[in-house]
Every structure is written in C-alpha cells, then in structure tokens.
Records
---
Amino acid sequence: MAPLHPLLTRLNRWRYTLYAPIYDRVAGAFARQRRRAIALLAPQPDERVLIVGAGTGLDLDYLLAQRALTAIDLTPAMVDALAARAAHLGLAVDARVMDAEALAFPDESFDAVVLHLILAVVPDPVACLSEVERVLKPGGRVVVFDKFLPDGARPGLARRLLNLIARLVATDINRRLADILAATRLTKIHDEDAGFGGFFRIALLRK
Ligand SMILES: C[S@@+](CC[C@H](N)C(=O)[O-])C[C@H]1O[C@@H](n2cnc3c(N)ncnc32)[C@H](O)[C@@H]1O
C-alpha cells in the first residue's frame, strides 16, 4: 500500500461528507449515462446487484425492478442520503458504510456490480476492481461509467496540471481502464463513448 493511501481515503471521506448535501445537483447531470449503463448491465429482477461507491443513490432510479440490492459507500453521509432515497422510492436496499477496496462480502456473492464514478476516485482502483472480481459470481457482469484517459495514451502537460486540481477537488482524470483491468481476469465485452468527446466512457465487463 502506498504511504499516502490512508490519508487519501480519509480525504475522500471528508470531502464527500462536505459534498453530500449538494451532490445531486452536480451528479444529477448524468441521468442519460446512468440509464444507458444499467440498460447494458441488464440485471434480472432476482439477480443480486451491488452498487459500489454508491453515493446518494442516483442509480436507484434505474434499478426499481430489483429485489436484491446492496449499496456500499465509504462516507456515512452518502449512505444516509441513499437510504432516504431508497425509502422514498419504496426500494429495499441493504445500504452499508464500507471501503470499496476491502469489501466485507464472501466470494461470488453478486450477479452484477455497478461502478459509477468510483474507479477514478478511490486511491487504489486495482484493489477496488479486484475486490469486485472476487465478490462477483462466475459469469457475473460489471458496468463501469467514469472518466478515463484513452487506453495506451499518455497525458499531456495541460492534462497533468489539470489533474492536480481535479484530484484535489474530487477525482483522477488520468487513469486508463485497460491498466486497471489488466490486473484482473475480468474481460471487457463492451466499451462506448459516454460524453465529452470520449472523456467519459461506459464499459461492460464479465467475470
Ligand atoms: C463521485 S462519487 C460517485 C457516487 C455514485 N457512484 C454516483 O454515480 O453518483 C464517489 C463516491 O465514492 C465514495 N468513495 C470514495 N472512496 C471510497 C472508498 N474507498 N470506498 C467506497 N466508497 C468510496 C464517496 O464517498 C462518493 O460517494
């Protein structure tokens, strides 16, 4: 583990506690991408679905038919907001405070996993995706929606400088999905532009 790792996790909890009351006004802008990503995941109503780094639960609107939903997030204020949204929607969600890099679930617990705007936020995205792989049943699917550097590309100076600010505020903009994926045995079966000239992508992975 990198020496700064515990500090970065604490920073995430602190800043997302600060953002929780206004989060929906910003992240609500991604409704189209959420709908598309969950349509690609195509969870059957009885499948066990896990939302990792679930935030205030903006994805719940697209998972109304699910009967076995679990959502985890590092930030208690986010989990509280998600639980309130679930109650408002009449959805039974097992919502827990948990670190995405150390999931407290047995191996092969879930059929499908939602990873929206989280791989670019956690300090160690490989640890996060490896945990998702572990808790996923064989043949299970993962949908990823996030901002990535194109596979194989190197960030220019402007993007590296911009990333200093982006990381301070919320998120890393210079991660490559292929690099994160290479550390697992998950297979990418679909990848599409999700806006801003390919800056945002939606990918479907299978175990
Ligand atoms: C950009 S928000 C995305 C929230 C939600 N997935 C969405 O699409 O709106 C990032 C979320 O990741 C959570 N988070 C950050 N580090 C985490 C970690 N190590 N484990 C679990 N959640 C984490 C934050 O608390 C925040 O709710």
---
Amino acid sequence: MTLRPDILFSPLALRHITLPNRFVRSATYEGWGDVQGVPRPELGELYLALARGGVGTIVTGFAFISRQGRAMQPGQCGMDQDDKTGPWAHIVTRVRDEGRGTRLFMQIAHTGRQTLSRITGQPVVGASSRRCTYFRQPVRMLGDDELRVIVNDFACAAYRARQAGFDGVQVHAGHGYLIHQFLSPWTNTRKDRWAEPTLLLQEVIIAIRRKCGDDFPILVKISAGEDTVPGLGVDDALQTVVCLEALSVDAVEVSYGTMEYALNIMRGGIPVDVALQVNPLYNRYPALVRHMWKRFCFPAYQAGIIPFAEEYNVPAAVRIKRQSSLPVIPVGGMRTLESMLDCITTRGLDAVALCRPLICQPNLPQQIAAGEFSRSRCINCNLCTVYCDSDRPLYCHL
Ligand SMILES: Cc1cc2nc3c(=O)[nH]c(=O)nc-3n(C[C@H](O)[C@H](O)[C@H](O)COP(=O)(O)O)c2cc1C
C-alpha cells in the first residue's frame, strides 16, 4: 500500500501561531554553548540543516534560565542574561533568512535537583529535600521568595527569547526538572501553598504572558509517567493539561520520565561502557570501582529500564487528547512513516515530535516528500544520549 504523506505537510493552526507542517524537532541538547552558555555559531548550522530539510518547527535544546538552574552538560546554552540575546538573535536571523519559514521555539528550563552544585556554584535546590538517586546531591527545599525569583527568571528568559526573534518558548515541565518536581507526588511533599502540584507551572505561564504579551506562543512539555511509587501518571498529566487549557497555552508535548531513570525517557540501547568513560558522575572513579559497579550494581539499574517500543508515549498522548481541547504532540519512538501518519489520521494527534531520528537524518521530512523514507535509520543505540554528558557536541555515532 502506498502511504500518502500529505497530511504531514499540512499547516497546523495553534492559538497564537500556525506551524508550517506537522514535523516538530523535539528539544535536543546540542552541546554548542560556550562556558558561559552563549550559543556558538555552529548551532545555527545545525538549525539550518533541519530547516532546509523540511522540519516545520524546531525546539532548541533546554536553555537554562538562571545559573542555579543550569544542567550538568558542559555545552548547555542559556538565556539567563541580557548579553545572550544578541548571539541567539544572530542564529535566529540566519535561520529566518535562509530557512523555509521554519518556526523556532526556545525550550526554557530550571533543573532543580537534577544538577550538581559544582556546576551551579551554589547549593542544589528542589521542590523538597528529596535527593535524586542519579545526581546524589543534598537538596535544599526552595522557599516562597526564591520561587518568586524563579518564576520571574522564566519570564525574563522568555522575554529575551522574544527579543531574539524566537516565535515562542517551550516551558520544560517534564523529565524531572524543577517544574516536574512540583507536579510529582514523589518530590512535592510540601505542606505550604506550593503543595498544589500545578501552581509553579501556572505562575510561570502567567508571568510569561505578563512579560511577553498575550500573543506570544507558549508550548509546554510534560512527562505523563515516571518510574517511582508514588509517581506521576497519566491522570496527573490530565490535571496539568486542564490547567494549561485554562491558561490558553498553544500546545502540549507528551513525553515520559525523569533523570532518575534517564534512559526511560529515551529507551533503547544502554551503552554502559561509554557512559562509565564519559559521564562525570562515573568517570572520576578509578577503573576498578567502575568495573565493580558494572558487575554488581548495573544489573539492578538495567532491570529498571523499560525496553524500546515504537510510539511509546502515544497511548498517553491519545488519552490526553481525548479529554482536552489543546493540540497534543507526542514524542518518543516514532520511527516509521506509517506510525507518523497513524498518529495524526487515526489517533487524532496534531503533530509528531522527533528527536533521535532528526539527529540521524535532519532532512527526514524532505525524504518523506520525495518518497524516499519509510523507516528511520536510527537504531536507538543511545550513543548520542550518553555523549551529551561529555564535552562533545551532538552527533549521530552511526
Ligand atoms: C541527545 C538527546 C538530547 C536530548 N535533549 C533534550 C532536551 O534538551 N530537552 C528535552 O525536553 N528533551 C531532550 N531529549 C529527549 C527528547 O526530546 C525526546 O523526548 C526523546 O529522545 C524521545 O524521542 P525520540 O524517540 O524521537 O528520540 C533529548 C534526547 C536525546 C537523545
């Protein structure tokens, strides 16, 4: 049977913006930031390749909104200071001038407990003092005044993104980062007004609207599941989406998981030897200790990893779509033209977000249009994933 991909190339009208087609490059850490988090020009080349390859919407890798919310990855870009607006504007202008009407969104994030104090230069903070088993840092519970500062930091980062020419922002409320920590019963054990899981997210959206105007598009990325008990599930995600609907955000992207089991966000291969070599959480230990870890601790870690399956977040996205009027975009495991079409035509979802397939083939939409694509070349080896923790920029290792 010949699949007619036309629907994938049809525009998608969101509340405040129209996306040129249904291909969304899901936020992907690129590693092209300098030590201060200023984006290097090579990042523009990467976005241009995606734009020329037919990707309608590009979401940047997660950009930190403040030094406190910076991640462990050494090449992470930021939007925490006014002097970063210029370098970002340069990149956006290049893509606008030479791209094909591609929409650009900046993903803005605060890591909360999922970072290291030697990176941020200050104590690690979170919704509660519960430590992350991956980063193993002591965590200080954030106070009311500090949370107000963080809300303002999100708004200022969004404002800078608007000044730089971005079409909108994506608020990172998933993958165990700070906003997710408030949404999750595992980490939000508070007794004050911030015990309301969605309060921080709501305040962030309201502050962005105030600072950037009602017409500035906002996407939100959420996790609709995680690996702890108690943990956030699809019903919690639905509650979040009800709030987002009331706040008229433009669309929600549905993902999974936290950094506690990072490979459950991605799924697929577990390149443990490379991780032990390049990940600063492990490579500071002597080879013998790493060897022992692999032998005795790794099997237990591995047992908690969910195997890769195609379209693994689509069932959760469909449930959310059925109960909300917001456009819903699934991410995770879309590897065939058939599954991309199925998401939109049969399942009623609005677009498809892709990460690893576009690292592998940035011109994937163009290949579909030319009838030259049926399955992604990505084999989910996750080498791109584990090398994020090294000082190498993003690339496909195949
Ligand atoms: C190398 C790499 C970097 C990533 N960086 C981010 C990021 O900055 N922000 C984010 O929300 N998700 C990030 N993700 C997760 C992806 O956006 C996506 O949710 C996940 O890879 C599943 O989609 P896929 O099967 O199409 O790869 C990253 C994934 C990979 C492999």
